[in-house]
Amino acid sequence: MIEHLRHIPREFLWLFGSLVVLLGLASAIGAWLRSRPADEKKSASRANLVARINAWWVMVAILAVAFLAGGTMTLILFALASFFALREFITLTPSSPGDRLPLSLSFFLVLPIQYLLIGMQRYGLFVIFIPVYAFLLLPSIAALRSDIDDFLSRSAKQQWALMVTVYSLSHAPALLMLDIRGGHPGDDALLLFYLLLVVQMSDVMQYVFGKLFGKTKIAPLVSPSKTVEGFIGGGIAATLIGAAMWWITPFTPLESAAMSAVIVMMGFLGGLTLSAVKRSLGAKDWGVMIEGHGGVLDRTDSICFAAPMFFHIVRFFYT
Amino acid sequence: MGIVKLLVGAYARWIGSTPTPAQRIYFANHTSHIDTLAIWSALPRSLRRRTRPVAARDYWGSGFRRYIATRALGAVLIDRAKSDPTVDPLEPLRGALREGDSLIIFPEGTRGAGATPARFRSGLYRLAGEFPRVELIPVYLDNLHRTLPKGAALPVPMVCTVRFGAPLSLITGEDRDAFLERARDSVIALGTAAA
After folding, report:
1. Does residue A175 fall inside a structural domain?
2. Among residues 5-34 of chain B, which lie with CB inside 8 Å of chain A?
């Protein structure tokens, strides 16, 4: 444990230090806002802001513990996030008795194996396990039970659930598998941190810019809070922040800007697409687990889309 | 407890009542083995110790199950089968109520198959008449019948909420069937309330 701590790059402590300072500032502003008089609507939106900041504290604390405790802990953390996200997805998905066994297996077999494969550094099996084996075998179990009502729609929804909440999300900790060319131990953990930071900054900045300048809705039926102004302003801000973080990555500043732009774009598309999925399942939030944020999937939707893309670009160009 | 939270979440929603230490009978729809644990873990820690689930003696009354039910949960065992006709099966429940404990009961008497509860048994009516001071709180458990329904071996994790409704009391002169129907409706109404 102590030996392991010595390998933590100095950058890490700096990053977490600055995050804590930033959040402290945000909390102070939140407390100040709440102490000021306001009408009902304003005070509700301020309460929502404070709840969001508090949820951020919890997320940063959990991340800090996971990073300091090492790769295994990070994997367990993401496996849990997948578990909760899958649970939210399945709760909203109609299922019939024939689906019970495939669903149980998704939670208790497919999910652990997917993360175990990362831990065992089995890249080849990791990328095909769910798209091939789970995709073919789980619906077969349901078919063997000759439960055929709405069969295609049911199994398609369940495959979507696995692909998004387990397969895609697991590409974030899978960054820890990569051997960056000319890199040092701990570099891949910084890449994971970089991914999470850019995705979250993009979410926050789009929220802030949308609140300040948002007028033109991009897809009002899918996500009323996404505006052109919010996306462009927030996207550029997050890309700049990402570019400024080039020194913790193997990228040059320009490459880092491009990477961040990809992450921002994919994150945005993830939020939009999963919002459409969620609405077609008839819900507004995925769940109720995180106060102020809805469910786990409401917070990780952008990571789910950004992680696989980022993982493969890094793997192709930098290993 | 931790496992239950992991599987089903069991998020409490207090709609019309608040978690206070008043003596209560919580009555709920019954669809799964983990119903009792779900209600129990939705209650604040401080209330759990004085809140005792009622369980069927023919199922929970022996061996390891009995150990879990009575030691870990402080369950009150009820004799569904009325093996001794001279003893009123409600007697152990009365005993617990006299000691000031709250109870969790499932008035359907057995696990149902779907989202809508079956007809209620009369025990709730009799207890309501004998203990007018005890608050009767309807509880609705959603999604648990999808998590671990009757006859299923493996659970499917789902997000479940436990909804606690406004207290119900016996109206003077109300007959048994009318009261039981009203109690059942209050549970169903919670089921259609927004989560």
Report:
1. no
2. 6, 9, 11
Domain housing A119: 70-170
Residue B195 lies in a domain: no
A146 and A231, same domain (yes or no): no
Do A185 and A151 belong together in one domain?
Answer: no
The model's pLDDT over B121-138, given as tens digits with 9 standing for 90+, comes to 888 999 998 998 899 999
| Candidate from A11-25, A122-136, A282-296 with smallest mean pLDDT | A282-296
Number of separate domains in chain B:
1
> In chain A, positions 54-113, which contact chain B (CB-CB < 8 Å)?
83, 86-88, 90-91, 95, 100-101, 103-104, 107-108
Nearest-10 Cα torsion for A307, A311, A312, A313: 100
What three-state secondary structure class fits B133?
A: coil
DSSP-derived secondary structure letter, B168: B
- Domain extent at residue B150: 2-190
Reported ipTM:
0.82
Q: Does any domain span residue A53?
A: yes
Assess contact for B156 and B32: CB atoms under 8 A.
no
Could you tell me the pTM of the whole model?
0.86
Task: Tell me phi and psi for residue B105, to 5 degrees.
Answer: -125, 155
Compare all CA atoms of chain A with the CA of B10 and give the residue at the minimum distance: A289
Q: Both A306 and A243 in a single domain?
A: yes
- CATH number of the domain enclosing B128: 3.40.1130.10
Of the candidates A116, A148, A170, which is a domain's last residue? A170
* A86-100, A180-194, B21-35, B89-103: the lowest-pLDDT one: A180-194
Name the phi and psi angles at B140, rounded to 5.
-120, 130
3-state secondary structure of B62: coil
Do residue A221 and residue A244 come from a single domain? yes
A85, A4: one domain: no
| CB contact B161 to A (< 8 Å) | yes
- CA–CA distance, A57 with A298 (Å, rounded to integer): 17
The Cα A281–Cα A288 span in angstroms is 16
Asked if pLDDT for residue B164 goes beyond 90, the answer is yes
What is chain B's mean pLDDT, rounded?
85
Task: Find the closest chain B residue to A101 by CA distance.
Answer: B154
Please return the burial class of A175, using the count of CB atoms within 10 Å of its CB with bins 0-12, 13-18 and 19+: buried
What are the pLDDT digits (tens) for A142-182? 888 877 788 999 999 999 999 999 999 999 999 988 888 87
Q: Is the pLDDT of residue A116 over 60?
A: yes
- Candidates B11, B152, B161; nearest CB to A100: B152
Q: Kindly state whether residue B130 falls inside one of the protein's structural domains.
A: yes
